[in-house]
Amino acid sequence: MNLEKFRDYCLSLKGTSEKFPFDESTLVFYVMNKMFALTSVEFFASANLKCDPDLAVELRERYAAVEPGYHMNKKHWNTVLMDGTIPDKLILEWTKHSYDLVVAGLTKKDRAALENL
């Protein structure tokens, strides 16, 4: 997985925007102003993705390249190392899972606005 492919996929998801809210190197992807993915544009060594708490534990146990979310709520976020050991397909599936979790948590008003985009 490379940064361009990851970025293109994130931006292909409905209602997604990107910002640098923390510093000039931490790229954050949002859906309706709620973050669902974070990564570094300087190194792209990992990405933080929201995850169902039970699945988060399962993925950490199964894959050495999945760790508790760095600087995030470790119950709800995983850090996925981009070390080549996890297939791109899985990383994209987990990114979509993160997006879907955030969408599910949106207010009715924001979900309706997203549907109308």
From TrEMBL:
<keyword id="KW-0238">DNA-binding</keyword>
<dbReference type="Pfam" id="PF04237">
    <property type="entry name" value="YjbR"/>
</dbReference>
<protein>
    <submittedName>
        <fullName>MmcQ/YjbR family DNA-binding protein</fullName>
    </submittedName>
</protein>
<dbReference type="InterPro" id="IPR038056">
    <property type="entry name" value="YjbR-like_sf"/>
</dbReference>
<dbReference type="GO" id="GO:0003677">
    <property type="term" value="F:DNA binding"/>
</dbReference>
<dbReference type="InterPro" id="IPR058532">
    <property type="entry name" value="YjbR/MT2646/Rv2570-like"/>
</dbReference>
<dbReference type="InterPro" id="IPR007351">
    <property type="entry name" value="YjbR"/>
</dbReference>
